[in-house]
Amino acid sequence: MLESLKMNPAVSRGVFVLGLVISLAFSGAALAEADIVVTTGKEESGYHTIGMRLADVLSEQNITSEVLTSVGSLENLRRLDDPNNPTNVGLTQADALKYFLKEQPSFADKMVILGEIGKECVFVITSVDSDIKDDGDLQDKKGNLIAVQSPNSGVAVTYEYMTILEPKFKNTAPAFVDGVEALLQVKSGSGKIKAVMIVQRPTAKSAEMQAVLDSTKDFRFVPITDWDLNDKLPDGTAVYTFEDVTVAEKSWGFDTTVDTICTRGLLVAVKDKLDADKRSRLSRIMLLSPRRVVGETN
Q1: Do 204 and 165 belong to one domain?
Q2: Fewer beta carbons within 10 angstroms: which end of the chain, N or C?
Q3: Strand pairing class (65-68; 241-249)
């Protein structure tokens, strides 16, 4: 009986080869590139969250995807523009896209906008006692600094692009300081940082925005209304819109509003890296099920 249970050597070799083939097949599948490689933002940022939601929706359609972190919009666009980089979908602010196109105009023929991922507005905050009353004061030579986070952040790109459209904004130079830390300097009046700039969804409760709304007696918003900031993307849509933005509704019924500029978050793909079928599927997702990807847009 025991002898009958012993495997024939030829059969044993066959089983081994079959197992090896199956193992290699699974390994190859694991190493295969994802259908969609999307570059987003820093881990736990809004852009990265959107990328993860998009991956969940794509998986329901049997489309494999990989979500990459990045330092921001410009890195996303550089990855997309690089023919040797597998990234084929990315998230970007509209103003960062226009800024990038000034450096790499040929990218306009490579890319396609597949959808919008929400409105992002510029908020410049100063102290209630500051002599910065409007964006014209930011254009005066007063030796002031404006905090815009890290040099690779979307905020920094926005401020740099604003200085391209209206060079006088350079008279208030950027300081790469954490927003909350900078607000403390603005509140105390110590140092040269006299304003803080953030870019976010209108009612998003970032640490900076929450600090301002919790201390309205100490801070106020600076209106941004300079019409020289008007510009358009290659498809003719506005880079910035001029809006009266509600950032919070007070308990007694009055809104906290500010006149400022807003840009759009965009989902961008490269045509040579992503076939027409997958571009169409992404467009349908963004058109028919935007909230599943973007969440609340205000």
Answers
A1: yes
A2: N
A3: unpaired
Verify that 142 and 180 share a domain, yes or no: yes
Domain that holds residue 217: 119-265
Q: Which of 93, 112, 132, 134 is nearest to 231 (CA)?
A: 93
Q: Give a yes or no: residue 12 inside a domain.
A: no
For tokens 């024939």, the residue is: 8
Separation between Cα atoms, residue 120 and residue 263, nearest integer Å: 5
Q: Is the pLDDT of residue 261 over 90?
A: yes
> What are the tokens at 190?
């110590």
Query: Averaged over 163-176, what is the pLDDT?
Result: 95
Examine the pLDDT at 1 and tell me if it is beyond 50.
Answer: no
| Residue 244 lies inside a defined structural domain of this protein | yes
- The average pLDDT across 283-289 equals 94
Cβ atoms of 138 and 195 closer than 8 Å:
yes
What total number of domains does the chain contain? Answer: 2
Give 16's pLDDT tier (boundaries 50, 70, 90): very low
β-partners of residue 219 are: 127
Q: What is the DSSP code string of 153-188?
A: SHHHHHHHHHHHHSGGGGGSEEE---HHHHHHHHHH
236 and 272 inside one domain: no
List pLDDT tens digits, range 44-62.
888 999 999 999 999 999 9
Instruction: Report the pLDDT averaged over residues 194-214.
Output: 90
Neighbours of 121 (CB within 10 A): 22
In 10 A of CB 144, how many CB atoms? 20
Contacts of 136 (CB under 8 A, 6+ apart): 226
CATH code of the domain in which 87 resides: 3.40.190.10
